């Protein structure tokens, strides 16, 4: 067995102990971790400087990797918030007595061991541990190598708290190494129950292609908003502005605006607020004509096929004119990544048709897709936004990190 | 695009129409299919004879492939039963109004397109169509080539009924071809939402290794029953007999009996009923000594390592003596396929420890593992018994073939 194989075997064993830990203990450990991370922040910051010294300050990684006192306070606050959430474990999801007298109940339990593969933000290290631990799961973390020392410093502090509470410290393991270790982790069937990639589309598709352990995919969002013939233009303009500019790098940000041809005359008003944020618009022929001499020329470009079905993650927007709701639905069903889709319309019937016919994790009538978020949805902590259909779809709370088991209490029942 | 690619594209399109079909129509179609299959049974039987004529009557496939009037009646009865089940669709799983006024609800919807890869039983063809259709899913069926004509005859009749109801007949497609087509089906990301293999362990592991579409694994059962120190021996003997002999080829059948050493003296009574069914016992040294001169010598053999952690699917049983509950739990956690596991004990504390600590889809106290079944559990039709932790675990009803979507009805809400 490889060295990593031995580590994973120990993590698996620790996960069986963790599954039996009382809720109050889990809460206490997370709170103590928050306190310890703040108390030992100077040690973390010193090690973070070592990681940073290996990067050019101009590197785009620099800002993501850099920790500050404020960021450590945020990490600690995150741990406390997760500590205080209701436990997703030991919920009786259903129960009944069968005609033969067997007492059957379905109870939520941890998945077991979760592997998380992520990029260079060291704050993810603490965040993922807290989400996994709160839901009774051991976790194996494979972060970016640029952040390895910073992440190791955080894990060292967490393990100290675990030991103080008499908990097997293998419930969290940070692994190093390159692609070979990452692949071994995603193929450790029987030792690892779930892999979650957290990062860009390259990382996600790499994990999807190589994993044999089940994967939850998160975060790919090709997001559309359709402006119907009959619409409150001022409200629509506010929603479009928010959907595009509130967090342009987030997966729930608007990518393609579809406009009913009857609203082409109002298109300049619909997109006017975007100019303030210097949003570049890629417009199809009809919407280009509608916008020319209204939208700043330096921000207006003709659209080509490559601009549709594309996630920009930037202050860029594709705009397309459609003849009717059917054409909008066909465009969305063809190009959507099934994350979040919206219709803006004063016509109730059209709204309901859109909500029924669009196949996506979240469908909106007259609201901004930026609302797709675990916190906004009231799910407590957000594990991610799933773009798959199995297990969990859309914003995932802690319950997405649990499975269930059927518990059957009998008095001698057999099968007839 | 390949020919199969074109078919899958049309199936995907048909699934969008199917998702909008009213519940009453789905029910009516399934009932009409049941009537039509019975009415046209002579055509099906004639074609089945053609399939059978290609096999040796002595082949083990023969009985599984052979259709009779009785089997067609059973198929029709199965369709009617599924027709009458409550629809798993359009259930409001939760709903709330957010502080900003957004009305949010989570509603069950079909997965979309389900691919099923199975072996030579033509009755699976009708059964899988009915389960998929009842849950609003289009399905693509890849059956064994020995049953190809029989399955095609069944699908032809079903499609006639679909057309009569004005439903796109692409909602069910039977595909032929070899491994290359099967692989194309399991890698059709974006066109197929789920693959379910139905068949033996070879088929299941082949699909698991080659699929990039999400898979639900069903049916691998390495099943244990532990007899504790303090137990009702007569009741335990009945449960063991039922667990092993009720349906020995089923995944929920007992494979390994673990016996507390204090019960070795009662082991002859515990396994006595098994001799009537000619069950071969592979016993470890201590249990062999306890059974010698009690259990028929021609049915008693010494166990080796290969007999533990093995699914027999036959009238064979491994028996092992353990010193205590801890040893039993360790053995189970090492060898279990996490399907169904049982403890037989008069000690409540030990029962509860077993139910909490064993990580399996179904855990039993004082009952037979043969009860692991969708019908027995009251789930209506059984889609299979999942041995995985994500999405669905244990006996799966129709709701395992659904996902959900979040529907958000707004009045101009944006993200702050």
Q: From the alpha-carbon coordinates, what is the Rg of chain A to the nearest angstrom?
A: 24 Å
What is the CATH topology assignment of the largest domain in chain A? Answer: Aldehyde Dehydrogenase, Chain A, domain 1
- CATH class type of the largest domain in chain A: Alpha Beta
Can you give the helix content of chain A as a percent range?
25-40%
How many individual β-strands of chain A? 16
**Chain pair with largest interface:** A-B, 66 and 66 residues
The helix count of chain A comes to 14
* Overall pLDDT score of chain A: 95
The total domain count of chain A is 2
- SSE series of chain A: HHHHHEEEHEHEHEHEHEHEHEEHEHEEEE
First and last CA, distance of chain A? 45 Å
Q: Please, what is the CATH homologous superfamily of the largest domain in chain A? A: Aldehyde Dehydrogenase, Chain A, domain 1
Largest sheet of chain A: 7 strands, parallel
What is the fold's blueprint, element by element?
2 copies of one chain form a homodimer.
Chain A: H1 3-18, H2 23-39, H3 41-53, H4 60-65, H5 69-83, E1 92-97, E2 103-110, E3 113-118, H6 122-134, E4 138-142, H7 148-164, E5 172-174, H8 179-186, E6 194-198, H9 201-210, E7 224-227, H10 233-245, E8 256-260, H11 267-276, E9 280-283, H12 285-291, E10 300-302, E11 316-322, H13 325-335, E12 340-344, H14 348-357, E13 362-367, E14 384-386, E15 394-396, E16 402-413
Parallel strand pairs in A: 3-4, 3-6, 4-5, 7-8, 7-12, 8-11, 9-10, 9-11, 12-13
Antiparallel strand pairs in A: 1-2, 2-16, 14-15
């Amino acid at each position: 067995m490889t060295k990593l194989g031995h580590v994973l075997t120990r993590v698996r064993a620790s996960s069986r102990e963790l599954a039996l830990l009382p809720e109050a203990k889990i809460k206490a450990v997370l709170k103590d971790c928050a306190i310890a991370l703040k108390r030992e922040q100077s040690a973390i910051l010193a090690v973070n400087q070592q990681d940073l010294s290996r990067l050019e300050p101009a590197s785009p990684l620099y800002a993501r990797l850099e920790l500050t006192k404020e960021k450590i306070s945020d990490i600690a606050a995150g741990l406390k918030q997760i500590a205080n959430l209701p436990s997703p474990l030991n919920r009786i999801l259903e129960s009944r007595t069968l005609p033969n007298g067997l007492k059957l109940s379905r109870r939520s339990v941890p998945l077991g061991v979760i592997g998380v593969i992520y990029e260079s933000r060291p704050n993810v290290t603490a965040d993922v541990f807290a989400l996994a631990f709160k839901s009774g799961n051991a976790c194996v973390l494979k972060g970016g190598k640029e952040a390895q020392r910073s992440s190791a410093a955080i894990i060292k502090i967490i393990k100290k708290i675990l030991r103080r509470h008499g908990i097997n410290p293998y419930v969290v393991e940070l692994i190093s190494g390159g692609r070979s270790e990452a692949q071994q982790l995603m193929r450790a069937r029987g030792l690892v129950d779930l892999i979650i990639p957290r990062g860009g589309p390259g990382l996600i598709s790499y994990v999807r292609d190589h994993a044999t352990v089940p994967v939850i995919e998160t975060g790919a969002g090709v997001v559309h908003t359709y402006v119907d013939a009959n619409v409150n233009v001022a409200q629509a303009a506010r929603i479009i502005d928010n959907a595009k500019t509130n967090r342009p790098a987030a997966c729930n940000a608007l990518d393609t605006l579809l406009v009913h041809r009857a609203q082409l005359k109002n298109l300049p008003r619909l997109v006017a607020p975007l100019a303030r944020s210097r949003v570049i618009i890629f417009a199809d022929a009809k919407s280009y004509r509608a916008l020319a001499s209204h939208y700043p020329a330096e921000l207006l470009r003709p659209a080509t096929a490559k601009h549709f079905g594309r996630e920009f993650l930037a202050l860029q927007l594709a705009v397309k004119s459609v003849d009717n709701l059917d054409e909008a639905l066909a465009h969305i069903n063809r190009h959507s990544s099934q994350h979040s889709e919206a219709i803006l319309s004063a016509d109730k019937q059209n709204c309901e048709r859109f909500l029924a016919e669009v196949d996506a994790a979240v469908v909106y009538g007259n609201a901004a897709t930026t609302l797709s978020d675990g916190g906004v949805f009231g799910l407590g902590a957000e594990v991610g936004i799933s773009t798959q259909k199995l297990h969990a779809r859309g914003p995932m709370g802690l319950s997405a990190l649990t499975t269930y088991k059927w518990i059957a209490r009998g008095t001698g029942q057999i099968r007839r």
